[in-house]
TrEMBL record:
Organism: Zea mays (Maize)
CDD domains: GT1_Gtf-like
Keyword Transferase attributed: yes
Alphabetic keyword roster: Transferase
Stated family: Belongs to the UDP-glycosyltransferase family.
Domain of life: Eukaryota
Stretches the record annotates as Disordered: 1-20
Name of the protein in question: UDP-glycosyltransferase 76C1
Biological classification of the source: Eukaryota, Viridiplantae, Streptophyta, Embryophyta, Tracheophyta
Gene Ontology molecular functions: quercetin 3-O-glucosyltransferase activity; quercetin 7-O-glucosyltransferase activity
Gene Ontology CC terms, in alphabetical order: cytoplasm
Record keyword Transferase present: yes
One Pfam family named in its UniProt record: UDPGT
Length: 472
């Protein structure tokens, strides 16, 4: 509904009654970016704003699952072979090249027609992912204000903002000998935790980040999918350094969002709900849930070590193996010979999980994760301790916070070998350290739940955001 009366559901200052308004939203076309954008859209919609979602054709969301939104495709210009290779930086680069052509013409044309739609309430602003470099120019051409949604942590944004300093002081690009050196300007990070790409041309990434930062600095406000209780000093630093009218932290957005199909939306695969019935039969807190998100993969040796580590640990486990989980394999990932017989009745392997439901299930006692930010937030929100195996992008710094700042997990470092996997699983699921992590994870769950209460910081931030949008 795009109702005419704007009343906050909960929280601090109530949005004033004004004429109905509409928010346009434009996510980057990856699972970990689309989900939080739609979740924020849901929260805004529930507070009376109409929402139109612009989206690339790549990983396009299914409009049938979100009848509350309007969807408008934008030509993304990503060649099929680039999309198939799956290199995130290359995909973003191809998309930006196509969308920025002709003075951001392709995006401007879509915005013009969306803004001109008189059947919809007038557009107040566009909330976009700062990596979509064509948006600011196109939005300015049609007189629309921009807000940026950051789908990673505040620590990650702080790292991006510090990128010039990190290069100037020689932290980046990282030298092998410095990997464990603390970055004193960004505690608790060490050099190896910084956002840095080894598989993509670093200069390309640095240029992209510089332009994304510029888009953010010129925006009318920034929304970060985090919460004050988790990242207070990081948010304070950003608020001091970033000169935009408003910086808000209404996360975790999947919990703020009221629609189940939006909070756990998936563009990639069908969620296999049979795992919930399987979890129902397992003892409380006995199961290790294993998933490396939507993009991270393993080579075939690592895959085999993970499989045998799980098998040898003796613990029940639920393991998400995507069709593309093994790098360089021609077909879908094949489990090692003898594995299924070895774990019969104790292990379940599925292609894609209803992850939020899984993490909320009482049978789940631990999460072996690649430390993507959404997975981290989802685990923290359900009080599940983590075994972290970060691979790239912001995953190393997320793991650092899980282990060192919040004390709700351990990191599995070094070469992946079945013996190490087995020991780490035992430590997390049975050991005394694991018990302590589980205790702290439960405390953190309570803190997150408090933020989502009627006067909690996340609700207040959302109300502020709605008031701000209505004032634009
Ligand atoms: N996810 C899911 N089912 C799975 C694995 C992942 O629904 O089997 C969801 C998960 O809940 C999260 C997202 O995919 O919301 C992954 O985002 P994250 O930031 O953790 O990692 P990325 O995929 O971006 O590396």
């Amino acid at each position: 509904m795009a109702g005419g009366v704007h009343e906050a559901r909960a929280g601090g200052s109530r949005p004033r009654r004004r004429r109905p308004r509409r928010v346009l939203m434009f996510p980057l076309p990856f699972q970990g970016h689309i989900n939080p954008m739609l979740q924020l859209g849901d929260a805004l919609h529930a507070r009376g704003l109409a929402v139109t979602v612009l989206h690339a054709r790549l990983n396009a969301p299914d409009p049938a699952r979100h009848p509350e939104f309007r969807f408008v495709p934008v030509p993304d210009g990503v060649p099929a072979h680039v999309a198939a290779r799956g290199n995130v930086i290359d995909i973003i680069e191809a998309m930006n090249a196509a969308m920025e052509a002709d003075g951001s013409g392709p995006v401007r044309a879509v915005l013009e027609s969306v803004v001109a739609d008189v059947e919809q309430p007038p557009a107040a602003c566009i909330v976009f992912d700062a990596n979509l470099l064509a948006v600011p120019r196109a939005a300015s051409a049609v007189g629309l204000r921009t807000l940026v949604l950051r789908t990673a942590s505040a620590a990650c944004l702080g790292c991006f903002m510090a990128y010039p300093m990190l290069h100037q002081k020689g932290y980046l690009p990282p030298q092998e000998s410095d990997l464990y050196m603390p970055v004193k300007e960004l505690p608790p990070l060490r050099v190896r935790d910084l956002f840095y790409s080894t598989w993509s041309d670093h200069k390309k990434m640095r240029d992209l980040l510089a332009r994304a930062n510029e888009a953010m600095e010129n925006s009318s406000g920034v929304v970060i999918n985090t919460l004050d209780a988790l990242e207070k000093p990081e948010l304070e630093r950003i608020r001091e350094q970033l000169h935009v009218p408003i910086v808000l932290a209404p996360g975790p957005l999947h919990k703020l969002c009221s629609s189940k199909s939006t909070s756990s939306h998936s563009t990639l695969d069908h969620q296999d709900h049979s795992c919930i019935r399987w979890l129902d039969k397992q003892p409380s807190e006995s199961v290790l849930y294993v998933s490396f998100g939507s993009l991270a993969s393993l080579d075939s040796d690592e895959f085999s070590e993970v499989a045998w580590g799980l098998a040898n640990s003796g613990h029940p486990f639920l393991w998400v193996v995507r069709a593309d989980s093994v790098r360089g394999s021609d077909g879908p990932a094949a489990l090692p010979d003898g594995f299924e017989a070895a774990v019969h009745g104790r292990g379940k392997v599925i292609r894609w999980a209803p992850q939020q439901e899984v993490l909320a299930h009482p049978a789940v006692g631990g999460f072996w994760t690649h430390s993507g930010w959404n997975s981290t937030l989802e685990s923290v929100s359900e009080g599940v301790p983590m075994m972290c195996r970060p691979q790239f992008a912001d995953q190393m710094m997320n793991a650092r916070y899980v282990v060192d700042t919040w004390g709700v997990g351990l990191e599995l470092e070094g070469e992946l070998q079945r013996g190490g996997v087995e020991m780490a699983i035992r430590k997390l699921m049975k050991g005394r350290d694991g018990e302590e992590m589980r205790g702290r994870a439960k405390e953190l769950k309570k803190i997150v739940a408090d933020c989502l209460e009627a006067r909690g910081t996340s609700q207040v931030a959302t109300d502020k955001l709605v008031n701000y949008i209505l004032s634009l």
